[in-house]
TrEMBL record, chain A:
Its main location: cytoplasm. The gene is PRT1. GO terms for biological process: formation of cytoplasmic translation initiation complex. GO terms for cellular component: eukaryotic 43S preinitiation complex; eukaryotic 48S preinitiation complex; eukaryotic translation initiation factor 3 complex. Component of the eukaryotic translation initiation factor 3 (eIF-3) complex, which is involved in protein synthesis and, together with other initiation factors, stimulates binding of mRNA and methionyl-tRNAi to the 40S ribosome. Belongs to the eIF-3 subunit B family. Keywords: Cytoplasm, Initiation factor, Protein biosynthesis, RNA-binding. SUPFAM superfamilies: DPP6 N-terminal domain-like, RNA-binding domain, RBD. It comes from Allomyces macrogynus (strain ATCC 38327) (Allomyces javanicus var. macrogynus). This is Eukaryotic translation initiation factor 3 subunit B. Component of the eukaryotic translation initiation factor 3 (eIF-3) complex. InterPro entries: EIF3B, eIF3B_RRM, Nucleotide-bd_a/b_plait_sf, RBD_domain_sf, RRM_dom, TIF_beta_prop-like, WD40/YVTN_repeat-like_dom_sf. GO terms for molecular function: RNA binding; translation initiation factor activity; translation initiation factor binding.
UniProtKB/TrEMBL annotation, chain B:
The gene is TIF35. It comes from Allomyces macrogynus (strain ATCC 38327). The lineage of its organism: Eukaryota, Fungi, Fungi incertae sedis, Blastocladiomycota, Blastocladiomycetes. Residues 196-273 form the RRM domain. Component of the eukaryotic translation initiation factor 3 (eIF-3) complex. It comes from the Eukaryota. GO terms for cellular component: eukaryotic 43S preinitiation complex; eukaryotic 48S preinitiation complex; eukaryotic translation initiation factor 3 complex. Its main location: cytoplasm. This is Eukaryotic translation initiation factor 3 subunit G. Belongs to the eIF-3 subunit G family. Keywords: Cytoplasm, Initiation factor, Protein biosynthesis, RNA-binding. Residues 1-21, 141-189 are annotated as: Disordered.
TrEMBL record, chain C:
Transmembrane segments: none annotated. One of its GO terms (cellular component) is eukaryotic translation initiation factor 3 complex, eIF3m. This is Eukaryotic translation initiation factor 3 subunit I. InterPro entries: eIF3i, WD40/YVTN_repeat-like_dom_sf, WD40_repeat_CS, WD40_repeat_dom_sf, WD40_rpt. The lineage of its organism: Eukaryota, Fungi, Fungi incertae sedis, Blastocladiomycota, Blastocladiomycetes. The gene is TIF34.
Length: 748, 279, 328
């Protein structure tokens, strides 16, 4: 930038080669500004070096020269004399004070010196300590007292989060239901009768949808700019997670982490409201720490996933204790990460070419039987039951070539050892279902026959509590519509349909098809039994009952097992059938029946059907059925997506008796609030079961008083009405002539 | 406790019905001297029960007249029948009355499974305690048919088209009172006495015999089916299906009446003998 | 409960009534039929044949010796209850809407409709044991004022007073002998459809298309109000328990998309003192036009638009039910 030139001001007789003369007329202001050296900068070249040998005036110069030379060797240049060194002298002793101010040629030299010459060993008893001159000021200003607030800033106010498990303290042990209808979300108690009690109801609580966390502590609401979590007794907003355009969310099993997905890639962060760093730009998935609200890590999707917009959700599957989470990458690798570190296990993914499905095994450590002091008839040989390793992943690799059959495998982590596998010929795809306790595992494999023309399904059932994890295979020639393991039990149920399998089959049409074409099955998985002396009775999968000509397309086991509801949702009229699959529990499976045949009495043993229909009822247009977390109630909902009118929920008890109906216009979601696992140890649970009769009596009394309870105001009003009526009647009757009249004087 | 009218602390009045039809009206007041008195008034409001009873007995001897002139003793099936079990739904909470409907039908569905069943009406009580025993017995005498008065309490459709043949069994035209005219579409050759017929209506045009059997088969054994057609084979919209047992017929009615079939809502009811319909 | 269905009418029912002793139940319909049934078994005892138009109202005297009917054929008839023979016919200038015997059955009230150019008229006639002695001229005729709108129902009150319900919801009270209006008040906001007295005659219940029924005292003060969401066509007061029964309904409003499996029209039970609904019974396939309760409170009858009469004998549950511990 050329200096500004005021041509007119220059006298004509000036010598243009005389810079000094020109200087008078040239305005160097802008350049000066640009290159002005700030006062502070001046000290950027000066360091204070401590630990310098103490010398007197005479040796001073020599010392300087040595230092200069040595620094020069390191490539650091000290300014030339006389300003290079400045050593203050102590007037009293006549010697230096042990430190020197060194002015380096450039600030870069000073920085270099600071970096590389810190703790420079000048000689065997002197080590240089270097500090920036400017810092001296700073360090001198450090107060003697540590003032945290001044140093770190004001600490944020402690906000009480409230007791997250507050709802569990309800005296009536009721469960909560969250309902999203129209634009409002309500949280209410599910009562036994007469409809629910609404506790919280807010308009526009969510913009997208709501979801409960797996242990019920939080209610998540989806908004345009992120997720909000609500909880505590007053359902306050506890945390916000800023993820623009978020669509899906997933909680980790123990509610420590939140995974969010947005189809919009994250932009570069430009303001503090965006909590992610520049390394997250372009990512779609974020994992958050729920308690602090901080981002732990963000993840990118594979190119294929982005291109096809096909993202399986939940993208990451968590191990039972949140120690690991994993996902399949590109059908070739299984990426297992550790939490909370968020790094890949052993820093690399596990290569499993062709992998399409995987699931973590649910795991609950067997309780120490020795802890069960009461109820003492524990069999000691059952102390150590076989159990699969805790971090087990089951995965499936489909048939890739004529010599590579499909693989069903169980791998344990972190040693990545495949400890059990099975080959299945012509297996094309599979779904993996673990039983709730991790006792059994089922692969539902879609297979074809050798030529590839006919398709069928085979169920590969592994028993994970027996030595060597034996497996059984059951062939199913029909199309599977629904499947479910009995929680805590050894049974599974499925719904199939016998409509002809053809390549052009439209499954939707089949599912919504004419009534009476579905078959429901209940199977039992039995362990091998060793009988004394006799040979081992092999275990296996046994069909308990099959019922055809049903109009159902979904099944729901009670979370405690034993009871199941088959439902015909959406097009199938809302049929609900309640079954007890263990109706003969505790009793013999056979019953003696006495009949008279031709006048003679004949006794015969009859197999008593353990599967009994408790009730066949319906909730017209039902689109969803859900058990409450305790297995006491079943809620059937008609959402606005299924039917335009008659939206609402209906509550049933275990036996299928309808308790009440609650209408909600434009119902979108109705969700039970999950419960955390009970804290009662097993032996205490057994004790409760033993004393159930006692408890039942007390509850009956409570119920009786509750149902007839009216508020004090209502009772008062009733009394008033009765009295007023009596008065009215009495007055009116006075008008009628009496046949007879008796007057008696009353004594006080 | 103030009464509003008189001085405080007087007890409330009361009205009490007596056995002979009079009422005792008791009230309390202060007499001229300010003393509390109880006044009992006997009022004749109701009727004299003795006189009433005698009159009722007399009227039992009345002969039938007018439209009932030719009726025999007891209820005539043409005019009187006992309907299916129908609860008077009682609740202390008015909201529950709206929601109680499915429960009521549920209850009648469950009647099938209860151990105690009345011979006459099928209700969940002992036969000797049947409230409708008299009526049904006289109905049975009148029609000359024995047997239970119709298993009218099946899978939940009270009041649905159990036609004037109140006993519930299919009565062939020849045995019925009144007209002996053949019902539409029935061949007289084949005896269908022991089967239970239902009439399905509002069927779409393109329904075929096979469709009809397909529709009816889930409910049980179809003894006979008849689809009313025009000459060119187009379905006239109604059909008759005979089932082997009443249970099957009732199940079919329960499921098919109101069933959405090819965009039409079907009706399904017991097939009635031909007579002027009450509606 | 297993209701008895009485099929004796081919058109909608207009009135059902019990006699004083309760053993007989009378019904009238738009098919011009007037029938009598056994209230215990529901069997048809007989019919009073002769009218040629809708029979709007019927009555039976206290001793069940004579019955009376009023019809749209502009006549009111007196019948021998036992034989069905028509004893006397009064011809009126316009259709008859209401007929009623006095408790002594020495007088009868006939109220005609405003039609065919004729005003609504109340006619008091004498009844004699020997029909030949019945004078031709009525004892009294008076016209309720036009601004009250035509009367839809009229009943005797105590001491020869007459209580009427009108089309615009007014309830009025008259002295029968002088024809003077004692009182009138706008009670309902819609047509008054029925008016029934209590057993002791000290209060009565009115029902209206304004979806409510009310209990009024003799001075036309509203004592109780029973609210529903459907027009109420008829209401009666149970003589023993503190209940009232309402019948009504509206065709269009009963349409739902759920499968209509059974007659959805219901009779509704309300607690008379607490005004709260506590019971319902379904069964009718059309709106309920008329309800009546047995004088002992052991049964009730409802007549529907579909032409069916349903006779209900109460279960023990009904008698045991207490909405409030103070219930008798």
């Amino acid at each position: 930038m050329a200096p500004a030139l005021n041509i007119d001001a220059i006298p004509l007789d000036i010598d243009l080669t005389d810079d000094a003369a020109l200087d008078e007329f040239l305005d160097f202001g802008d350049i000066e500004e640009q290159y002005a050296v700030h006062v502070a900068d001046q000290f950027d070249t000066i360091l204070v070096i401590d630990g310098v040998p103490v010398v007197d005036e005479g040796k001073k110069e020599k010392l300087f020269t040595v230092i200069r030379k040595q620094f020069g060797k390191e490539g650091v240049h000290v300014k030339d004399q006389p300003h290079g060194f400045m050593m203050p002298m102590d007037a009293a002793t006549g010697k230096s004070k042990g430190f020197v101010f060194v002015d380096f040629a450039t600030p870069a030299d000073a920085d270099k010196a600071l970096k590389h010459l810190q703790y420079f060993k000048f000689d065997k008893s002197h080590t240089f300590f270097l500090n920036k001159f400017a810092d001296v000021e700073k360090y001198a200003a450090v107060p003697d007292q540590w003032d945290e607030e001044r140093a770190l800033g004001k600490a944020p106010e402690y906000v009480e989060r409230g007791f997250l498990r507050d709802w569990l303290l309800d005296a009536g042990a009721r469960d909560q239901i969250a309902v999203f209808n129209k634009t409002a979300v309500s949280v209410m108690w599910g009562n036994k009768a007469n409809g629910p009690d609404v506790i919280h109801e807010r308009e526009n609580w969510t913009e997208g949808y709501i979801a409960w966390s797996p242990r019920g502590s939080y209610l998540a609401s989806v908004h345009r700019m992120g997720i909000a979590l609500w909880g505590g007794a007053a359902m306050d907003r506890l945390m916000r997670f800023h993820h623009p355009g978020v669509r899906f969310l997933d909680f980790s099993p123990k509610e420590s982490y939140l995974v969010t997905f947005s189809p919009e890639p994250l932009p570069m962060p430009t303001n503090p409201a965006q909590p992610w760093g520049p390394e997250s730009a372009g990512h779609h998935v974020i994992i958050w720490d729920i308690r602090t609200g901080h981002i732990l890590r963000s993840f990118a999707l594979t190119a294929e996933e982005i291109a096809t917009k096909n993202v399986p959700w939940p993208l990451f599957k968590w191990s039972f204790d949140e120690a690991y989470f994993a996902r399949i990458v590109g059908n070739a690798k299984l990426a297992v990460y550790e939490a909370p570190g968020m790094g890949l296990l052993d820093k690399k993914s596990i290569p499993i070419p062709g992998i399409t499905e995987f699931e973590w095994m649910p795991y609950t450590p067997d309780e120490d039987e020795a802890a069960a002091k009461d109820g003492g008839k524990k069999k000691q040989q059952q102390n150590k039951r076989v159990q699969a390793p805790p971090y087990t992943i089951a995965y499936f690799v489909p048939q890739t070539g004529p010599d590579q059959p499909a693989q069903l495998a169980l791998m344990s982590l972190p040693n990545k050892q495949v400890y059990r596998s099975k080959q299945v010929f012509f297996g094309l795809s599979a779904k993996i279902h673990f039983q709730s306790q991790g006792d059994y595992l089922l692969f539902k494999v879609d297979r074809t026959n050798r030529s590839g023309k006919a398709s069928f399904v085979s169920l590969e059932v592994f028993r994970l509590r027996e030595k060597d994890y034996p497996a059984d295979s059951v062939e199913v020639k029909e199309i599977m519509v629904a499947f479910g393991w009995e929680p805590h039990g050894n049974r599974f149920a499925m719904i199939t349909t016998s409509d002809v399998v053809s390549a052009d089959l439209d499954l939707k049409a089949v599912l919504a098809g004419a009534p009476g074409k579905m078959t429901t099955h209940i199977y039992q998985v039995e362990a091998a039994v060793e009988k004394k002396g006799a040979s081992v009775v092999p275990g296996g999968v046994k069909l308990v009952k099959a019922m055809d000509r049903k109009a159902v397309n979904a099944l729901y086991w009670s979370p405690k097992g034993r009871y199941i509801v088959f439902a015909g949702l959406r097009n199938l009229q809302g049929v609900l059938e309640f079954y007890d699959v263990d109706a003969t529990a505790g009793e013999a499976n056979t019953a003696t029946v006495t009949t008279s045949v031709n006048g003679k009495t004949v006794t015969s043993t009859k197999e008593v059907d353990p599967v009994q229909l408790l009730a066949a009822t319906e909730h017209h247009g039902s689109s969803d059925v859900a058990w409450d977390p305790t297995g006491r109630y079943v809620m059937s909902s008609v959402t606005m997506w299924a039917k335009g009118m008659d939206n609402g929920v209906m509550l049933f008890d275990v036996r299928g008796t309808m308790l009440y109906k609650h209408s909600r216009e434009q119902l979108k979601q109705a969700l039970w609030r999950p419960r955390p696992p009970t804290l009662l140890p097993k032996h205490k649970q057994a004790k409760v079961r033993k004393n159930i009769k006692q408890y039942a009596r007390d509850f009956e009394i409570e119920d009786a008083t509750a149902s007839s309870a009216l508020s004090a105001a209502e009772l008062e009003e009733r009394r008033r009405l009765f009295d007023a009526w009596i008065q009215f009647r009495s007055r009116a009757l006075l008008a009628i002539e009496a046949e007879d009249e008796i007057v008696t004087v009353l004594d006080n | 406790m103030t009464t509003g009218d008189s001085a405080p602390q007087l007890p409330l009045p009361s009205v009490h019905a007596n056995k002979n039809g009079t009422y005792t009206h008791t009230l309390y007041k202060l007499d001229d001297q300010g003393r509390k008195v109880q006044v009992k008034r006997i009022l004749r409001i109701g009727r004299d029960m003795e006189v009433s009873k005698r009159a009722i007995e007399e009227r039992k001897k009345w002969a039938k007249f007018g439209a009932a002139k030719h009726h025999g003793p007891g209820p005539d099936t043409e005019t009187t029948r006992v309907d299916t079990e129908l609860p008077l739904r009682l609740s202390t909470n008015p909201q529950q009355l709206d929601a109680m409907e499915p429960a009521a039908e549920e209850a009648s569905r469950k009647l099938k499974d209860t151990a105690i069943k009345c011979r006459y009406c099928g209700g969940p009580h002992w036969s000797k305690e049947c409230p409708s025993k008299d009526i049904i017995q006289s109905l049975q005498e009148a029609t000359g048919l024995g047997g239970p008065g119709g298993d009218d309490a099946p899978s939940g459709t009270p009041g649905l088209g159990a036609g004037p043949s109140g006993s519930g069994r299919y009565v062939p035209p020849s045995l019925r009172d009144g007209t002996g005219a053949p019902r539409p579409g029935m061949e007289m050759g084949r005896r269908m006495d022991d089967t239970y017929a239902v009439r399905i209506a509002n069927l779409p045009e393109d329904t075929t015999d096979a469709d009809l059997i397909e529709l009816a088969r889930p409910f049980g054994h179809v003894v006979r089916s008849y689809l009313a057609k025009y000459d060119d084979g187009t379905c006239k919209g109604f059909a008759f299906v005979n089932f082997a047992t009443m249970d099957m017929a009732e199940r079919a009615i329960a499921k098919l009446h109101g069933y959405g079939y090819a965009n039409l809502i079907l009706t399904c009811e017991h097939s009635k003998p031909r007579e002027p319909k009450p509606m | 409960m297993r209701p008895i269905v009485c099929q004796g009418h081919t058109r909608p029912l207009t009135r059902v009534r019990y006699n004083r002793d309760g053993d007989l139940m009378f019904s009238a319909g738009k098919d011009a039929k007037f029938n009598v049934w056994s209230s215990a078994t529901g069997e048809l005892i007989g019919s009073y044949d002769g009218h040629t138009g809708v029979v709007w109202d019927i009555d039976v005297d206290a001793n069940t010796t004579r019955t009376m009917s009023g019809s749209a054929d502009s006549s009111a008839r007196l019948w021998d209850a036992r034989s069905g023979k028509c004893l006397y016919t009064w011809t009126t200038a316009s259709p008859v809407r209401s007929v009623a015997f006095t408790p002594e059955a020495d007088l009868a009230l006939i109220v005609t409709d405003k039609k065919m150019g004729q005003p609504c008229t109340a006619i008091i006639v004498e009844i004699k044991d020997n029909v030949a002695d019945i004078p031709e001229a009525p004892l009294n005729i008076f016209l309720p004022e036009p601004e009250l709108t035509p009367a839809t129902i009229a009943r005797w009150g105590p001491e020869h007073t007459i209580y009427m319900g009108h089309e615009n919801g007014t309830v009025s009270c008259w002295d029968a002998m002088s024809g003077e209006r004692i009182a009138s008040k706008k009670i309902h906001s819609g047509v008054v459809t029925d008016l029934q007295f209590s057993e002791d005659g000290t209060y009565f219940i009115t029902s209206s298309k304004d979806m409510s029924a009310k209990i009024l005292d003799l001075k036309l003060h509203v004592i109780k109000n029973f609210q529903t969401e459907r027009p109420v066509n008829s209401a009666c007061i149970c003589p023993v328990k503190e209940h009232v029964i309402l019948g009504g309904g509206q065709d269009a409003s009963q349409v739902t998309t759920t499968t209509a499996k059974v007659g959805k029209f219901e009779s509704r039970f309300y607690h008379k003192i607490l005004q709260q609904e506590f019971g319902r019974v379904r069964g009718h396939f059309g709106p309920i036009n008329t309800v009546a309760v047995h004088p002992d409170g052991t049964s009730f009858t409802s007549g529907g638009e579909e032409g069916l009469i349903r006779l209900h004998h109460f279960d023990p549950d009904y008698f045991r039910f207490k909405l409030d511990p103070r219930d008798p």
